Amino acid sequence: MKSSGLRINNAELWGGAIWFAVSLFVLDQGQKLGLGSVNAPGMGFMMFWIGIVMAALSLGVAVQAIRSEGPSVRALWAETRWVKTLIVIVTFGLYGFAFTSLGFLLSTIPLMLVLLRAIDPVRWTIAIPLAFGAPILIWWILKTLLQIQLPNGVFEIG
Amino acid sequence: MKRTALALLSAAIFAAIAVPASAQNFPTKPINLIVPWPAGGSTDIAMRAIAEAASKHLGQPVIVDNRAGGSGTVGPAQMAATAKPDGYTIAQIPITIFRLPLMQKTTWDADKDFTYIAHLTGYTFGVTVRADSEFKTWADVVKFAKANPGKVTYATPGAGTSLHIGMEQIAARDGIKVTQVPFKGGAETNAAVLGGHTMLQVESSGWKALVDSGQLRLLMIWTANPSPNYPNVPTLRQLGYPFVFDSPFGIAGPKGMDPKIVATIHDAFKKAVDDPQVQATLAKYDMVVNYKNTADYVKFVKEVTATESKVVEMLGLKKKD
Amino acid sequence: MDLLGQVANGFAVALTPINLLYCFIGVFIGTLVGVLPGIGPISAMSLLLPVTLSGTPESGIIMMAGIYYGSMYGGSTTSILVNIPGEATSVVTCLDGHQMAKQGRAGPALGIAAFGSFIAGTVAVVGLMVIAPFLAGFAVAFGPAEMFSLMILGLVIVTFLTQGSMLKSLLMASAGVVLGLIGLDSITAQPRLTFDRIELYDGIGLVPVVMGLFGVAEVLSNIEQGVKRTITSTKISNLLPNKEDWQRSAGPIGRGTVLGFFLGIIPGGGAVIAAFASYALEKRISKTPERFGKGAIEGVAGPEAANNSAAGGAFIPLLTLGIPPNVVMALLLGAFVIHNIQPGPLLMVQRPDLFWGVITSMYIGNVMLLVLNLPLIGMWVQLLRLPYNILFPMILLFTVIGVFASSNNVFDLYVMLAFGLIGYLTRKLGYEAAPLVLAFVLGAIMENKLRTALIISAGDLTTFFKKPISAVCLTIAAIMLLMPLIPQLRRKREAVALEDGNN
């Protein structure tokens, strides 16, 4: 499993590279916001210097990745149920979009159904009452007792 | 589930005490009042007293939300950008809202981005030093500053506040150079001067408790007349400066509020500043009610912007564009 | 014995039936809002502030104190059970508390959190009574330069002692600072890194960041690992800490209490740093540092004690100088003001009944909390018996509600999802989330202090070394940063990291 030297699918190296890109962005933003002078530091002063620190650190990570071994990108997801994770992420992302347009209840009940059935399926007799019951109960508590208005969507349900 | 039953029960208790019955259409839920200064400073204390009185008349709690920063502009600027004009989010409007746009690029337009509701009160500003300071009078400060240009540091609640502008006007007249250190508000400036991090504190009367207990010394105040609480402390005029600085303030909401809602809030705050208990609290901090109704407040905003423009230009702080 | 007499007076006030009732309501609501992450103690207290004014000031303040303590404790409950910290101060509790829960030891974790908080709270009250007047100067001794250096030290301590590579921890901390700077600048009120999104003018909210990095990321990792890692499979052992747990926790609680008390005095960020610093300290002096991050009870006991005694220490600048170090204290001040009582150094002389009423109510609040929460531990633990495939959708629903209720803004939902993804990916590559959170909380304050310190010193960078407190902080920080470079010490640290890699 272990190998050293420059390998292109070394996950650690990619990590360092991404951080380096982030640090360049921060540095650039700091520069644009204005550094000011030492006796009156400007808005970008801190950001600029943090950017420099981050750049140095990310280069450090990259150097370490080249010198010592790091797992390959593939190895990180080997023997995992990454498809299930992906399902959750995508569902959750879609849920975010549906949240305001469909409203809390119409988006949350399907979300719960998907989560309960698609990952490690729960019996329908439990999944359905739970998927309907929990959101409705929470919606009721928030709306009537705590007076927090959840979005009710285009169909005005909720 | 047992847990949800518990949650329900406690939520019910919570709601029963938190939400008094109200038959009015507005407000039906608590109102957020943004105070753009840290908790514990004089503005915060005054606004809390006013908010409490106003909530009695509104039938809903008025919740003070401290969002300090940017010389008291961060809170209102955030409100102007993000809040709905439904009356449930309003803010204290310090004078920096009109002044900062003259000095630099800002995210708001004081003329267009707010619905002005009512003008409430003004401050008593004063210059304080730590009790063991070598400065016994204001003249000592001037003398020291003449010998050591730029060495005198003074803490203000933010750049471009009336404290900053006022101090620079005083310094310009005396031909001295002093260095401003902008903090986020009174609680922080108190700590700065007590800890010896700055030599002076220039702030509204949040220093009162510390002056009364003898930990700070008040060198001068900036009102027109001597303060009844501190009759022996000279005013700027008594020291020979032709200035009075007080920086009055009011409240406003985001642009586009329903006039009916504006009127409801206005009436409640009007009653609040008329409340003798509120006036007693204000008097403790040497604040005097300076009420203006909605229409007069809007007019006042225009006037203040015009005069501020001249001052800022005179001090060379005007925005370059 | 004037002091004892006054304390007794305070208790006499706090122990009347009506005040006990207020206390119970306060603690109960506090526990509830602590468990619901979106509704913090501050909003609950502000909502209830006007209500409390109908009664005596003492009743109101006792209830307020109850809400505050209850919410602190409620925050640690969710940290331990589902890895969702309710407050920045309970982020550290996640690290070992949730691991304990995974091993079926949620009961002892919750128990030690309650007892640790109680003991620390008690000691802090005593400390407050005895040495408060002498410590007034300590609070203001921290000017901008000292605050900046202290925060740097706090961040370095955390990066030094979290799992894995120090480079990675430092990167996470730097990223946290940058995230903390998003929003309107605190000095000029101009937008930074907001990309013209008005939602970002307020800065990124702490709640969605923390819930994403901890709650959502945890769910994603667990799903990926499959059910084999769920809590249900492990037997739930005893509900309360056993003798060994107590032996391990006694030291951490004692040290956490002292550390928390002194750091709590410093306005701004004191309590948060205290919790992190206590964790770091315990790991540093532990004979078995490799157990940390994998369910060491010391890692729960120390920080929980620290954040509770920090709340006691926070009263010192308020009562002696009238400078409230956090919003909760300011809310109590608000109550005083409305009753025409002037907060500040003269409070103790002018209204001793109120002063001691407040202090003893803190103590009563702690007792109540213990009484209320010990029976609840069993119930919370039962919750973990739910199979993970039922529990995780509930956790996600819970985070959605928490995030939405705290801001009423869908944007924060995306922020949470984004940070869930970031947390999941960085975890894969061995980056710890805790330094990012601490840096995120401190970022804007740190920047403000750096800038003010430089203005005061007229641009003289040596100011950070000329001031003794600041110099000490920076020296310790520098030593910690350089330590990994010295081969012998590095080996010791890597021994810890390697253990982790072998999982």
Word description of this protein:
The complex is a heterotrimer of chains A (158), B (321) and C (503). Chain A is 69% helix and 3% strand. Chain A folds into two domains: 11-77; 82-145, no CATH class. Chain A has helices spanning 11-33, 45-67, 73-77, 82-102, 104-118, 124-145, and strands at residues 36-37, 40-41. With 158 residues, chain A is mainly alpha-helical. The longest helix of chain B has 21 residues, at 294-314. Chain B is 42% helix and 18% strand. Chain B contains eleven helices and eleven strands. The radius of gyration of chain C is 22 Å and the shape is globular. The model of chain C is unreliable at 497-503 (pLDDT under 50). In chain C, strands 1-2 form a two-stranded antiparallel sheet. Chain C has helices spanning 2-14, 17-35, 41-52, 57-82, 91-102, 106-131, 136-141, 144-161, 166-181, 206-225, 243-265, 270-285, 298-313, 315-321, 327-338, 347-350, 352-384, 388-407, 411-428, 434-456, 463-466, 468-482, 487-501, and strands spanning 183-184, 191-192. Chain C is an all-alpha fold and 503 residues long. Classes of the chains: A mainly alpha (158), B alpha/beta (321), C mainly alpha (503). Chains in contact: A-B, A-C, B-C. Chains B and C meet through helix 1, helix 2, strand 2, helix 3 and strand 7 of B and helix 2, helix 3, helix 7, helix 14 and helix 15 of C.
